[in-house]
Amino acid sequence: MSDGDVSVDLNAAYRAVHSPVSASDILEAIVPGHWSTLTIAKRKDVDSILSMGNMIDASPGTRTDVLLTTAFAGKPHTLSALALLGKVVITRAAELSLLVTPSTVSAARAL
């Protein structure tokens, strides 16, 4: 692999992690017209999530994620926006706390 190829590889998306999000972020991700289509029960579920506090874990598989996904089933725009909340893409270079450029790869190979 060339120095440039190594740099590109280490700076490419490696994996995604989810960080907690605010209730405000969740509210902003909901398409306004979708809110009015919710049943009273689903609205109560979403209200309970929005009142959970400052930072909410809505990562995939959590109860919060399941409730939101269920509430907005059939609403792809809201579901897509909710799925992106808190998603952080990590590169291998960032995970290793490295600044990787072709010149740093070249310098490392020279050691």
What profile does the largest beta sheet have? Answer: 2 strands, antiparallel
Rg, Å, rounded: 20 Å
H/E order of the elements? HEHHHHHEHH
Shape: elongated
Give the helix proportion (percent range).
55-70%
Write down how many β-strands occur, each being a DSSP E stretch of 2 or more residues: 2
Strand order of the largest sheet: 1-2
Task: Give an overview of the whole structure.
About 15% of the residues are buried. By secondary structure, this protein is mostly helical. The chain has a domain at about 20-85. A two-stranded antiparallel ribbon has the order 1-2. About 55% of the residues lie in helices and about 10% in strands. It is built from 8 helices and 2 strands, in the order αβαααααβαα.
Quick structural gist:
The protein has helices at 3-11, 23-29, 32-35, 40-50, 63-71, 76-84, 92-95, 102-110; strands spanning 13-18, 87-91. The protein has 111 residues and is mainly α.
Compile the SSE list and pairings:
Elements: H1 3-11, E1 13-18, H2 23-29, H3 32-35, H4 40-50, H5 63-71, H6 76-84, E2 87-91, H7 92-95, H8 102-110
Antiparallel strand pairs: 1-2
Helix pairs in contact: 1-8, 4-5
Key terms:
111 residues; mainly alpha; two-stranded antiparallel ribbon; 8 helices
